[in-house]
Design brief:
This is LacI family DNA-binding transcriptional regulator. With 351 residues, the protein is an alpha/beta fold. The chain has helices spanning 4-11, 15-22, 32-44, 76-81, 83-98, 132-138, 164-177, 206-217, 233-246, 258-270, 304-321; strands at 66-72, 101-108, 123-127, 145-148, 158-162, 183-188, 191-192, 201-202, 226-229, 252-255, 280-285, 298-301, 328-331, 334-336. The longest helix has 18 residues, at 304-321.
Length: 351
């Protein structure tokens, strides 16, 4: 039986390189040409990894191709309107290359598109809010399923989410500490989608729900200052127009996404409402263009690519090492304060 040393000598690389490659070390950096040469030699010499007694459950094979599926609840248009969704997908694709996983099927949820049987795949990553039980209708081979950014409870499955409740409270505290009391919220709808023909479920979006709860506890809640639409610039523009025309504008707005905030700020600029002197704005996402708006947009930095990468790591752990215990990963955020909001350190100038 061939050894790692024999493969290394024939391939002209070190034994450490061969060992790390055949054990799928994601930190290994070698050229595709070298990788291909080593794998071909390993196959030619019929190399079989030595299994230790304490690793009997290890399923990973350096020569086997593992194929996974990715199910997206978003459309191509959603990705064009909001880079958040695109970055999750790109994070998945990038991490799959590191772990030598092949995306064998990429599907988007559409009412008129029936789903195929997915049991020929080794695992699934489901992005967005989807009815959890629906997935098992098409994939019952095993429990190698990871849900990403799903507001629907995923009991029994792996889940990767963002701590949006904590982030929303941090934004609100920042505004309160800046002297704001009349604060509004603008965000999109939250729908848990079905892929088996059931009725979609409307749920309270976590940022909106957290905002309402905190404002009610402080006795400051005004339902007229809570607006809901779509997660895009046009919706932000129209909602802000409605709010301005209704009168009684708050002195600060929390907006659920940067694309919505871009539309809202455009309407404020067109009507002569000064940001942040007349109205502070803090948003979510911190997309690349946020720092270049007029004024630069305060925003909660979210790491969508890390959502995708973390999902792949969890799925790889299930596929390669037979983990069955569900794991929940909650990613943190970072509040980036810019000129669109009156912040604690500068609020005295406006009082």
């Amino acid at each position: 039986m061939a050894t790692i040393r024999e493969i290394a000598e024939k391939a002209g690389v070190s034994t450490a390189t061969v060992s790390r490659l055949l054990n799928h070390d994601p930190t290994l950096s070698i050229t595709e040409e070298t990788k291909k040469r080593v794998l071909e030699i390993a196959a030619e010499l019929q190399y079989k990894p030595t299994r230790k007694k304490n690793n009997q459950n290890l399923k990973r094979s350096s020569l086997k191709e593992y194929r996974i599926g990715v199910i997206l609840s978003t459309t191509e248009e959603d990705e064009l309107n909001d880079p958040y969704f695109q970055q999750i997908r790109l994070g998945i694709e990038q991490a799959c290359k590191q772990f030598s996983l092949t995306i064998g099927s990429l599907l988007r949820i559409k009412r008129d598109q029936p789903f195929p049987d997915l049991n020929e795949l080794d695992g699934l990553i489901v992005v967005g809010s989807v009815i959890t039980e629906d997935i098992s209708h098409y994939f019952y081979k095993n429990e190698n399923i990871v849900f990403v950014d799903n507001s629907n409870p995923c009991k029994g499955y792996d889940l990767v989410n963002i701590d949006l409740e904590k982030a929303t409270i941090e934004v609100m505290n920042t505004l309160f500490n800046s002297g704001h009391k009349t604060i509004g919220y603008m965000g999109g709808e939250q729908t848990v989608k079905s892929i088996t023909g059931k009725t979609d479920i409307e749920v309270d979006e976590i940022r909106k729900a957290t905002f309402i709860k905190v404002m009610q506890e402080k006795g400051l809640y005004n339902p007229k200052h809570v607006l809901t639409g779509d997660w895009n610039p046009n919706s932000g523009y129209q909602l802000m127009k409605e709010l301005i025309e209704s009168g009684g504008l708050p002195d600060a707005m929390i907006i659920g996404s940067d694309p919505m905030a871009i539309g809202a700020i455009r309407m404020l600029n067109e009507t002569g409402i000064r940001v942040p002197d007349d109205l502070s704005v803090i948003s979510f996402d911190d997309i690349e263009s946020a720092a270049y708006l007029n004024p630069p947009l305060s925003s909660v930095k979210i790491y969508p690519d890390e959502l995708g990468k973390s999902a792949v790591k969890l799925l790889a752990d299930r596929i390669f090492y037979n983990r069955t215990i569900p794991v929940k990963v909650i990613l943190d955020t970072k509040l980036i304060l810019r000129e669109s909001s009156r912040n604690p350190q500068t609020s005295q100038e406006h009082m």
